[in-house]
């Protein structure tokens, strides 16, 4: 039989792991509202704060951006004009694995764009890999890789990492 101290330590470890999962899911869920309100550089900089200072956002078909300022600037060309027209990033529930101060999450995302008076259409459907790190007691994105679900071999290879993640 294990001692009370051992049981308490195991319980604390399990609670920490569950908190990590919740914090990571909250981080990923916050992306949608932050990006959907990024209609100017100041707002995009708030979004870029989700990344580490040297973080990377590799957006399939649109390029890879390194560093918060580059990530914020990536939205200037097209995205800023889409916000007032109506755009909605829906983040699928991620599958998360945590190892100490590092984590990996896989999920899907769907971006809907407004068209006409009351119609929305799916504009981009992507697979995502989030490489995360805990810095100063906060989870941050080290790298997000996004690939369109067009049968792209890179998207499929990224999703196949689930084989290594599921116990």
UniProtKB/TrEMBL annotation:
Q: Where is the SnoaL-like domain?
A: 20-145
Mention any Pfam family matching this sequence: SnoaL_4
Family annotation (InterPro entries): NTF2-like_dom_sf, SnoaL-like
Q: Which residues form a coiled coil?
A: none
Q: Which Gene3D superfamilies match?
A: 3.10.450.50
**What's this protein's name?**
SnoaL-like domain-containing protein
């Amino acid at each position: 039989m294990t001692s009370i101290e051992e049981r308490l330590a195991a319980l604390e470890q399990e609670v920490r792991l569950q908190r990590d999962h919740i914090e990571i899911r909250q981080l990923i869920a916050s992306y949608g509202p932050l990006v959907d309100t990024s209609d100017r550089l100041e707002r995009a900089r708030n979004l870029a704060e989700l990344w580490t200072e040297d973080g990377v956002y590799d957006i399939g078909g649109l390029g890879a951006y390194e560093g918060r300022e580059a990530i914020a600037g990536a939205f200037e060309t097209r995205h800023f004009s889409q916000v007032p027209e109506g755009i909605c990033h829906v983040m699928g529930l991620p599958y998360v694995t945590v190892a100490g101060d590092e984590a990996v999450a896989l999920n899907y995302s769907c971006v809907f764009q407004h068209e006409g008076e009351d119609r929305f259409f799916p504009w981009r459907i992507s697979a995502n890999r989030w490489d995360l790190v805990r810095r100063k007691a906060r989870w941050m994105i080290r790298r997000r890789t996004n690939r369109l679900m067009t049968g792209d071999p890179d998207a499929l290879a990224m999703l196949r990492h689930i084989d290594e993640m599921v116990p």
